[in-house]
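Sequence in, structure out. Go.
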Amino acid sequence: MLGPVILAASRSDKMRRFVSAAPGTKQVVDRFIAGETVGQVVPVVEDAAAKGLEVTLDVVGEDITTVEQSYAARDAYLELIDRLKELGLGAKAEMSVKLSMFGQALENGHELALANVRPVVEAADAIGTTVTLDAEDHTTLDSMFAIHEELRKDFPKTGCVIQAYLFRTEDDARRLAAAGSRVRIVKGAYKEPASVAYQDKAEIDKAFVRIVKILMAGSGYPMIGSHDPRLIAITQELARQAGRNLDEYEFQMLYGIRSEEHVRLAAEGHRMRVYTAYGTDWYGYFMRRLAEKPANLLFFARSILTKG
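Output:
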């Protein structure tokens, strides 16, 4: 029951100030956030490549309130892409973006987000990589899917994310599981009402498996976002049943979580991509990581107590 409480706190300015000031926060944040600058995250990409891993890079900071901030978000990704180009790392690193960070929630936000994300997708394509549009709360999804469809007209490798806990997602998966599509399936990490989303973990897991089965049976490229050993094993079996080779789907896990498993899956021949977040506005991302797994919250609480 802690998850919904933590997700509500992720939107609280008062909690943001408290968490940011807590003595043990930095130790825990450093576990999930690869750095604050492009210069700090580049060695993480290089280290992952040396281990046979790939990454998807997320510049954190979706809670923007001005058009100027949306331009700054766009420019932060363009700076990242320029640096990856200089180092020849484009083939090992793609980008993940949240359209709220590109102005989706502002006035005329759909058009603004599309205008901001397009040059990022263009720049990524120019260095041999691509962009995946992250899923956010359910009220934003129709806009996200429309932008995804528009971008794929010129950049067909543009990916998107679907969330197993939403009732709509099985239909979305059937629509998206077409040739050339790239779809990441995750459980979901936002506070959603019972009218649109499963609330029980067991029901979410069942939905996750049903959706993976749809994606594996389709003609697209599934990206399986999970740290759950049972779901990973089920995914491997569903891929085998669908006759998929190891390079016809991939696993994705978060930076700082089950790092040994990242390496193990890659060593077995799987494509393994590490979702790697960086930047200074880490609070919302950090709180969702705490909400996803009680052990993360216990780790944070111990850090505060031992540093207090």
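Check: Residues 303-308 have pLDDT under 50 and may be disordered. Strands lie at 54-59, 93-97, 131-133, 159-163, 182-186, 221-225, 250-254, 271-278.
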